[in-house]
Amino acid sequence: MLKKWKWLPVSSEVNFTVEKRTLRLDFCMGGESTEQSQKDCIQQTKLACS
To answer: Is the pLDDT of residue 11 over 70?
Structure first.
């Protein structure tokens, strides 16, 4: 997935600088039921990245 990601530079300047990005991957597994797992996953995607 990451190898196929089309990264675009923040700036179009000729002088390249180090660019830092944060990538968040959410995985939803387990739970009492499939419905509960999906509900938990939806709630997790609403959490702020810090």
So the answer is: no
φ, ψ for residue 35 (rounded to 5)? -65, -45
Q: How many of the other CB atoms lie within 10 Å of CB of 1?
A: 6
- What does the DSSP 8-state code read for residue 2? T
Could you give the C-alpha distances from 38 to 25, 33, 41, 47, 48, in angstroms and in order? 15, 9, 5, 15, 18
H or E stretch at 13: none
- Predicted model pTM: 0.42
Map tokens 């675009």 to a residue: 8
C-alpha span between 28 and 17 (Å, rounded): 35
